[in-house]
Amino acid sequence: MSGADLSHRNHVGGLFRAHYPWLCARLRGQLGASADVEDIASETFTQLLESPGLTPIREPRALLTTIAQRLIYQLWRRRDLERQHLEQLQNADAEQAQSPEELLQLTQTLHRLDRSLERLPGKVRATFLLSRIDGLTYPQIAAELGISQRSVSVYMTRTQALCIQHSANEPLNRTTQRSA
């Protein structure tokens, strides 16, 4: 680990100690008393830690609020997508309707995929969500995230490989669930 990395980690650690309780209180105002508050607050600092070449921050609370707000929007988009999908399944014809077990299995699969996506760095995950959920083009994503179109392409390839790996493992998960 280089001196710059250690300095960056120490700086973010100091910001965490100074502002984490404040950020949680602010998020509680938006999200209520949910488990999402601490998840989003922690992910905010994780993204800050992953930011390369961070210059001294004059207004740390403004930056933390901006990062947290983006994470809240992503959470809401995921929930809206899940809700829309479940509504579509409920509105399907009786012949096409899935059993409660199949719905549970589908929901569990979505949650496993979501956990896989959460392990990706913030910009990689954001790139995928902006493309697949918001339907943005690569140039639009590049402008939104302040990255090059080449980076967008690389990030999309990375997340698509993760999705392929996830779907390849899915039959194994179903077999394991049935035999358990």
From TrEMBL:
**UniProt xrefs under InterPro entries:** RNA_pol_sigma-70-like, RNA_pol_sigma-70_dom, RNA_pol_sigma70_r2, RNA_pol_sigma70_r4_t2, RNA_pol_sigma_r2, RNA_pol_sigma_r3/r4-like, WH-like_DNA-bd_sf
Location of the RNA polymerase sigma factor 70 region 4 type domain: 111-158
Keyword annotations from UniProtKB, A to Z: Sigma factor, Transcription, Transcription regulation
Using the record's annotation, list all stretches that form the RNA polymerase sigma-70 region domain: 15-80
Q: Which SUPFAM superfamilies has this protein been placed in?
A: Sigma2 domain of RNA polymerase sigma factors, Sigma3 and sigma4 domains of RNA polymerase sigma factors
Q: Name one Pfam family in it.
A: Sigma70_r2
PANTHER family per UniProt: RNA POLYMERASE ECF-TYPE SIGMA FACTO, RNA POLYMERASE SIGMA FACTOR FECI-RELATED
* Annotated family: Belongs to the sigma-70 factor family. ECF subfamily.
Protein's name in the database: Sigma-70 family RNA polymerase sigma factor
